[in-house]
Design brief:
mainly alpha; globular; 144 residues; 7 helices; single chain
């Protein structure tokens, strides 16, 4: 599912490229960074999804729906648009998603720790700062 959701996000980014000017692509990337940082900084991690039917297909659909609406897929979309390189964005996003899922499967107790919560907030703050650094010059007309 991680590969499928990353590929879909990058494909959508590739489709969006034709209709966006270079300045708009940079602004889109900045907005994506700001939204992803805000999600990591402000929202608590979602509880583990419950799947009452014990169906592998249903669990896959639930996992795909959760992944399509998270910050990581939006960042893959923004990278595909901002860099005009959807294939590398898809490959990097899929590899990162698989690594994160493998780490969560191997050591789920680490994700619920206080340190993980603080790391999530620090990374969210960094994403917000990078989004501002990319977006503000773009909005006021300074070419970076």
């Amino acid at each position: 599912m991680a590969v499928a959701s990353s590929a879909l996000a990058a494909w959508l980014g590739g489709r969006m490229l034709a209709g966006m000017a270079p300045a708009a692509r940079g602004l889109f990337g900045a907005i994506a960074l700001l939204l992803a940082g805000g999600e990591m900084l402000l929202l608590a991690p979602k509880p583990a999804p419950q799947e009452p039917t014990h169906s592998l297909f249903a669990a896959g659909v639930v996992l795909l729906a959760l992944q399509l609406t998270d910050a990581a897929r939006f960042l893959i979309l923004a990278l595909a648009v901002g860099t005009a390189a959807p294939i590398p964005a898809a490959i990097g996003g899929a590899l990162g998603s698989m690594a994160a899922l493998a780490a969560g499967w191997a050591a789920p107790h680490l994700l619920a720790s206080t340190e993980a919560r603080w790391a999530r907030r620090v990374i969210g703050g960094v994403l917000l700062l990078v989004g501002l650094a990319v977006g503000v010059p773009n909005v006021i007309g300074i070419n970076v």
